[in-house]
Amino acid sequence: MLNRREFSKYFVTGGAALLAPSSLWPAGNPTASPQQPANQTFDLLIEGGTVIDPAQNIHASLDVAIKNGKIAEVSKDIPKERALKVVSAKEKIVTPGFIDVHAHCYDGVGLGMNADRYCLTRGVTTAVDAGSAGYATFPNFRKYILNTSTTRIVALVNIGAIGTAMGPGSLDWVNPQLTAKAATDNKPVVVGIKIQLSKAITGAGDMECLKRAVEAAEIARLPLMAHIEDSYSPLPGILKMLRKGDIYTHCYNSRTHGILDANGKILPEAREARKRGVFFDPAQGQTHLNFEVADKCFQQNFLPDTISTDLTVIAVERRVYDLPTMVSKFMAMGIGLDQAIGMVTSNAARVFDYGAQVGTLRPGSEADVSIFELRDGEFEFEDSDGGKRTGRQMLVSKAVVRHAQVFVNAV
Ligand SMILES: [Zn+2]
After folding, report:
1. 67 alpha carbon to ligand 1 midpoint, in Å?
2. Is the pLDDT at 30 greater than 50, yes or no?
3. How many angstroms does the Cα of residue 66 sit away from the middle of ligand 1?
4. Does some domain include residue 3?
5. How many angstroms is it from 50 CA to the middle of ligand 1?
6. Lowest model confidence (mean pLDDT) among 8-22, 27-41, 285-299, 340-354
7. pLDDT tens digits, residue range 117-169?
8. Same domain, yes or no: 304 and 384
9. What percentage of the chain carries pLDDT values higher than 70?
10. 185 near 194, Cβ under 8 Å?
11. 379, 332 contact by CB (below 8 A)
12. Which structural domain, as residue segments, surrounds residue 180?
């Protein structure tokens, strides 16, 4: 799955790479066998980086030790001798593996991209596939994509029978019972239900589709992610249907029935939805992010809960590119580094039940770790309507740890 030209899988015992690891056998310990030195506690040590873990309020120069695929310790100056393998993260940022709550990973079907190539290689260890498959196509999606990917992919089942490839078509293909059954049968990799509400997809039937999607989510006891853009029905009625834990994705789009009223004020129904626990997610994709809409929301203290991509084969080539670029873009829009990282780690971890502790480097959690370079310079970012923004910093993925292996980005 991995394209070797772009990304070299690197077992830390050999080879050359950007983050050159040093193999540090405890040469001064004659009693220890090379396989199991007496004082060796950890499988991997990431040393000397600036650790940013918003879940624990950490922003400090620390080492990260890993054992048995879990975070074992995060502290200062962990002796190298205690680790089988050591990776230097000097002058780099070390974070929990990023979580993209909205991506399209059905590689080869519709607009799906390859998650190992465009997520894992960019520091994203967990991607949520946002409804690429529906109940009729889910077995194929699970067999050929979810079960074979190195990236942790969890999925939302689309309320339309065949997923985003074609939308629901007719209401005959919007079946809450069968959608809920596909979701329940495929837990824990299924973490929610997805609906797309727009004139082009659900048209005048949007409220009926939404009713059925909420019903599927209720039966399966899962959250519902609602793509809402240029919907046939006004936003307030749609938002009222969303429950605590549901997600309004594409929240800063500029189309009709958006989050702002005619005077540029946040709709009261949006504030009410947030108050009762609905998440707001921007997911730029092709058409869904407008800087001026986002600015007006930010000025009214309405920041997103998460930052996501809506990554497709088109979005990887233009405007969006990957999640670290989107994080950098939101930094250019005024969100601080730690807060932006929190939106793709600790906040994103709260949106779904991933079946594993992710989004933090707290000891005991999954050893999903990203190593970034924070480049200074002038970087131009684009929204979906031709708007431009210049940023001063760009996060660039350098390496990622997943399944207790280090993958080094060779770009
Ligand atoms: Zn999408």
Report:
1. 36
2. no
3. 34
4. no
5. 33
6. 8-22
7. 999 999 999 999 999 999 999 999 999 999 999 999 999 999 999 998 666 67
8. no
9. 89
10. no
11. yes
12. 98-351
On whether both 86 and 233 belong to a single domain, the answer is no
What is the C-alpha to C-alpha distance for residues 281 and 287, in angstroms, rounded to an integer? 14
What's the gap in Å between 80 CA and the centre of ligand 1?
43
Kindly give the distance from the C-alpha atom of residue 250 to the centroid of ligand 1, in angstroms, as a whole number: 9
Centre of ligand 1 to C-alpha 314, Å, is 12
Predicted local distance difference test score (pLDDT) of residue 1: 42
Based on the domain organization, do 71 and 186 belong to the same domain?
no
| CATH code: domain of residue 40 | 2.30.40.10
Do both 284 and 341 map to the same domain? yes
- Look at residue 365 in the predicted model and tell me its pLDDT: 97
* Residues 306, 344 contacting (CB under 8 angstroms): yes
- Same domain, yes or no: 77 and 133: no
**38 alpha carbon to ligand 1 midpoint, in Å?**
51
CA 309 to centroid of ligand 1, rounded, Å: 8
Q: Tell me, in angstroms, the distance from the centre of ligand 1 to residue 157's CA.
A: 12
Question: What is the per-residue pLDDT across 258-283, written as a single tens digit (0 to 9) for each?
Answer: 999 999 999 999 999 999 999 999 99
pLDDT at 39: 63
CATH label of the domain that carries residue 346: 3.20.20.140
**CB-based contacts of 117, cutoff 8 Å, min separation 6:** 1, 2, 3, 6, 7
Domain stop point among 351, 374, 393: 351
Ligand 1 centroid to Cα of residue 51, in Å, is 31
Residue 7 inside a domain? The answer is no
Domain count across the chain? 2
Residue at 21 is within a domain = no
Whether residue 128 is found in the same domain as residue 217: yes
144 & 274 share domain: yes
Whole-number Å distance, alpha carbon 6 to ligand 1 midpoint, is 25
Distance 77 CA to ligand 1 centre (A): 43
Count of beta carbons in the 10 Å neighbourhood of residue 73: 17
Task: Find the Cα–Cα–Cα–Cα dihedral 384, 246, 352, 339, rounded to 10°.
Answer: 50
Q: 197 and 102 in one domain? A: yes
Centroid of ligand 1 to alpha carbon of 102 (angstroms) = 6
pLDDT digits (tens, 9 = 90+) for 161-195: 999 866 667 888 999 999 999 999 999 999 999 99
Cα 399 to averaged position of ligand 1 atoms, centre (Å): 26
Backbone phi, psi, residue 324, to 5°:
-60, -35
Best CA proximity match to 341, nearest among 280, 274, 395: 395
